[in-house]
Structures are given as C-alpha cells and as structure tokens.
Predict the structure of Hydroxyneurosporene synthase (CrtC).
Amino acid sequence: MSDRDFHHITPAEIAWHSELGKNDPDFVDLFWLDAGLDNGWQVGVGFYRSRPHDGGRPAITLNLVRPGEEFVEVHETFAADAFAPAEFGGQWGDANVLVGTFDSRGRPESIRLSVAVGGVRVDLSGAVVCSGVKFTSATPGYTHYREETGTAVGWWPVAPRVDVVGRITVDGDDVEVKGTAHLEKQLSSLPLAGEAGAPSAQSMWTWGHFTCGDYTGIWTDSAASEQLGYRHFTPFVLYRGSEPVLSTFAFSSNVERFVTEPDTALPRPQVVTLKASDGHRDFFARLVDGRVSDQFELNGVAGAYYCRQVGRIEAEIHHWGARTRIDGEVVHEWGTQAGNFPFARSRRGDDE
C-alpha cells in the first residue's frame, strides 16, 4: 500500500540533508524563492548548498524580470567554507542570508532574505500565509528514497504563499517593493533531466504555483525516467487563505499547444491546462499569456529542454453544483529529458 498522503511540512524536510550527496559534484540541494511584486516585477532566487554546474559548491542565482527592461540573471559561487547552514536557511559569504522561523507547531512562520550578487541587491521579509506540505507520511518525506543505493529525490513547497515587503537595488535605482512570494526546497542525487535513456529524476514534467485573490495553488506532474517506470508524481494543493481546501493526487497537467520561442528557437508551452479532483471539488484551469523568464537546453544537452514562464491563470472550482471563477498570476515550468521530442522534418522538398 502506498504511503502517499498530504501532511504539514516539518523541520526535518526544511533542514539541509548533508548526509546525502557527500563528494558527489552532481548532487543538488537548494531553496528556491519566487516573488511576484506589485510593480510587475518578478524575482527568482536560488540558494544552493550544492549546485551541479558549480562542481557541487554552494551558490546563489538571482533572476529579475521587469516589464520593458532587459532580463537580469546573475550568479555567484562560494567556497565550501563560505557557506554556514542554519536550521532554516543559511548564510553564503558575508552578504547573503536566508532565514526562516517556525511557529510553536514547527511550521514555517516567517522568512527573511538578503542577497547582493552581480550588482543587484534584494531584501525581502514577510509572514507565511500558507504553510508548506509534504506528500508522504514518512519523515523526512522524500519524493523518492532508496537507502540501499543512496538515491534520494525531494520536493517540498515550504511556504506556498508569503506576504513580503522590502527593497530591490538594480541599475542604480533603489525601489521599495511588496507582493507575494513562494518558497520551496529541492534535492536530488539523480540528474533532474539529461541524456536520452539515462537514469534521471524526471523524464518530463510541469510544475508551478499561482495566486488568485485569496486562493493559492501549487502542483507538479512529474514523470520519472524509464528506469523508474515513467511513474507520475502528481500532487496538487489549493488553499483559500491559510487553509487547504483541495488536496489530491488525482491531478494532471497537459501542454495543449507548443510554439517555438523566437529569441531562443526552442519549444515552449503556449497553452497548459490543469485538472484536479478530490471527489468533492473539481478544479480546472488554463495557463495563458506566458512570458519566458528562463529557457535553455538542460545541462547543455541537445533536446533536453527547459522553459519557465510568468503568465495568467484562468480557473474554475466546482463544488455541489456551484461554480467559482478565479483568475490571477502564475509561474510555471516545463522540462523534458533528451529524446522525448524527436521532431520530424518534412521531406516534401526532397521529393519534388
């Protein structure tokens, strides 16, 4: 019998798992924060204990999307002894910190971050609205774990919604900001995606989070690689205020239409649909009007695609014959291992 279930996240999931990935430069262990701000800016910050592209060293990545302005992406790598882990977060060098606090029940209560990388400074802090979730009764609640092989994969929405205020300094301007943030934790001893046919944590996936007024949602539809049987991991959670009102593994996310992004010549989802049901409530949504915030070939492997977008969500909730329509902002991504999209080319020109 599966132990898949929804439970409040605990400090055991939020802690750094330094017992894993020792001497493995390909191990990844990080917090990721997204913030959608009232001035239209979108911020993404990755706080890494171990980053594969940096030989397993600590690192910080910062992305900033500003309407009408050039996309900003800056990155800094640190020596191992320049990283000081904490119970909830840590410090990278002298100027970069992520600090969280727990309430009396051991659930995330607040977060504070200060990052100064590549000439950009971000200072944000706020109270957690929606406390995080794990998807198993085990503690720590790994998504996949095999003690005999040492393989482990974990994805935990730590704080799906945080009301934040702060300042951002970029291009010489010091701007006061406020908005909502999403914080999550990830780790993996397997590549997140890569060469065709190789073992990986994911063969293909969609992922995202959204805010629609009082509603907050998180999801992933992640197919494991062939070696793990293409099993789909499909949690979806919808909150209203601080309370979860729909949580289910009866969820699917589908890309209904792809287009080629002109700037990168890479495929991106143009329309994505979400469908979830717990037997009492049904949820349906379309993700549209996406703006690419990051897109590349994963690990430099041809055909291993990754696309991250900021866009709009149009959704409906059905419950006891009543329909509630909601709309708002969404951050979502799509990725695939190489070999899943061997796009055919027409040979009509050769035959004519």
In short: The chain has two domains: 1-189, 191-345. Helices lie at 11-14, 348-351. The chain has a mean pLDDT of 92.
